[in-house]
Design a protein that fits this description.
single chain; about 220 residues; alpha/beta; Rossmann fold; five-stranded parallel β-sheet; 9 helices; 8 strands; binds adenosine monophosphate
Length: about 220
Amino acid sequence: MTLNLIFLGPPGAGKGTVAQSVAEKYSLVQISTGDLIRGEVASGSDFGKELAEIINKGELVSDEQVAKMLEEKLKEVYSSGASGVILDGFPRTILQAIELENIFSRIDKKLSAVIYIESSEENIVKRLSSRWTCSKCKKVYNALTNPPKVNGVCDIDNSQLTQRDDDKEETVRTRLAIFNEKTAPLIEYYKKKGLLKSYDGNVPPKESIVEAEKIIDELKNQID
Ligand code: AMP
């Protein structure tokens, strides 16, 4: 049986950092729709140019377009024998959550749980403005809490670290407002389904990872 998790939380709650770490520990594949979208943008395609305009304003890409990208990725990942996935940044609307159920049922998989990382607005703005990402392997650093060994350079492959265009303060505020309006209703949605597991993510990344691991260990005990 596969372990299929959603990491839910506002931008900057640490979803990507925690997902990256636990995916490695439990041999799960992390799928970030933000990374899929940024990959399309980097390809320079016409579709990528369309996407860049949307994400640089901090707005959401259409439910249909993101769901299609995700379904293709999920098929690819399971056909290469993955033991489970961590969805980071999807679903972001109730419609996407419903579409995810359709996708999972088409590929004969099931959602195991939703891990909600709670985070205060103050922490979010602080974290996003100090976030740096490796231009090659996409590893995420934080200038304040998780700096690279050498300033501006990735520990893993020595590539240059870059800051995301949508991490500017004004765009961050738009992204937060959109989270509150469109994504936060998912908390209640998954709570009602009995799938929600929450923890306080207003802690340093290492502690946040430990909290997520506790939840996953418990889930694995129930499944095994
Ligand atoms: P993220 O890396 O998850 O913060 O995503 C960066 C940006 O990509 C978001 O601000 C949105 O513009 C877009 N995006 C990522 N995931 C989704 C999604 N599930 N639905 C709509 N837009 C998305």
